[in-house]
């Protein structure tokens, strides 16, 4: 455990030096082990494992565009994102891993204790055994405190889910070379550093309030400020009813189609891209690494055209900070909609003059910074599948002048109310979970109640 | 409102007399408006609406049989099962409807206030307007107290869900000819009468504890008996983790295939049946009725080979009555497993000598009656799709001699714990919800705590 973060930064720099990696973009035709089906153009691994990239035709009445086609990652297996935590003297410590992912802009980031696809732990990789995996598969010695199947990026994955699991241990845990304990306070501080706490950590941490004793204390801090005494705008029943109503009202139909036939996408030599350079491209990368399960490999990845923006607009209602949650439909959403940030978009994929609607609340989100910005930091998306995919994460106070009337697929709820839905899986999408994890700390809690 | 149930029975007999119906089984080839696709054999309505009967190929590692084919009802639209309730002097009253369904053995049963498919209320029927529908579609005047998308019979429907919704009103509601108010106490008593409270009512009533003030009072009655002071065997986190673990562990893959090609099913002249007369058949019926939306129609239905058994084995653990919940996979289950009764089967589909396993806990369920039977009643399944489909509903006390160790896809939980999961939709299957609704009354609550 680190007494202060300077020690952590030194350790992390050391990890960076002791492992050398080289990432090279390659043509999709030059990836050993991977190939395109001559009939469909679908990209898959010769073992039939890992994942494949296929074409998807989407029809829905819940987006600006009623029908579109796109490449999508198909990976039906459920992976594990597992965090070992330990509570010592009322403080929560998480066992984090310094882990290289080829898509990260800075290669090395902090992942949860275990980040394993089913292929990882059933040996398809023929690589090393996944450390600490035994804590997450039955029979396990620790106490499971959070355990839910959660969705990943619905715009890029079809129905993909990972098991997000937090296990509390009381006994000593041997700490491997690339692993370290960080307190929740330290993680909260590091969450303000760009591209350091990876997506897998952020999604798991969105459930940490169910284990951390600090959480109760922080909540009380709020009450001491004389705020937080009001009632949420909507009861839990009303929120569930809103969610049910949106699900009943909209439809989402998907059909897998040959990757080579989707429009308006083209197979430029070696990569698949949108003809107007919107959304993302499918690219190949070659990786040489020394501390991964295997030391060299190639794989396809999705590369967004530019940095995205995900953010919650919030405001004080009845003395409680509420955020505006969007019931959002994405191509790969498991069950029509999930609870999402107020805004999620890649602005470069829109033009103000285009036939598509400029993203709702986007301008308000950027403007609202004047009243108070609670979170404003750039984080990376999963570096195992996405190449240099970054989002600007924002939580802003829009002020009490911001009207309470919102379209029917938006709903005001408190941070605690949204957190509670994280428990049940497939309710809160990955961007919203990542934003929640940026709100789990003493400083932000104090800010929240002072709004 | 009826002062005593005798008045209700008289009213119900009157309803039966004032509406006459004739149900006739017909060949699948003799249903006006319905036809078989000459290429696939799939049965559908010429309008493309209502539902269709298609072939399904199932692969799973979570049943005795790893692979099978069967006919299945495909009805992707989400219907409404809605109940209007009113609380007067601390007692809850439900607005019930005397409703004919062609598949009911006794034709007339008590349904919720509204029981409408999307076709019903968007006018595909070209029939009468659905009474009281305006209470369930926004903007509505009442207070929504329960609202969730719930699954229907997974063995017979593919991914079918209905919106189960309870709306509490304060104003006067005009009571139509086929409608009546019944108190929760009266409904509980009628729930012990065979084939009276229909499936749609039972599933909606499984959420009634979230509105009924009686519930708190009955729970307290329990505590007064000096019982119910213990802790549940598993915490909510542990139950969620168990459910997540089972979902992660098993797989369920489905593929729609031509109905005419599934094996071992045969198209006997006019009906589709299993060659060994197991499971169910697909049959045609012709209906002549005077008080339905339209006065005459034909439709296909599923007819089970015999009466089924669904039941919870329970026992006292730590002073609380626990039931043994099965995480069950059925052909049409939306997300791999749902929480189901300990036993659900059609015994006639098994033989003790067959290669398939005799249903687990079936013998124990029937034997356990000796310790105490809390529920033992025959109810009908949905009479709009199923012909003479009955199940014997059982909740029995297996006694403390019954071991706590159970297979990994079974889990002990209290009745309240299972009820809480009903809120979230797609957690508790329809058989389990129907059993829960049999436990929502004063007498049973007292029995439970006395075990």
TrEMBL record, chains A, B:
Pfam families tied to this protein: Hexose_dehydrat
MF-aspect GO terms: lyase activity
Family annotation (InterPro entries): EvaA-like (IPR005212), EvaA-like_sf (IPR038153)
Residues covered by the dTDP-4-dehydro-6-deoxy-alpha-D-glucopyranose 2,3-dehydratase domain: 6-207, 237-439
Record's signal peptide: none
Protein name: NDP-hexose 2,3-dehydratase
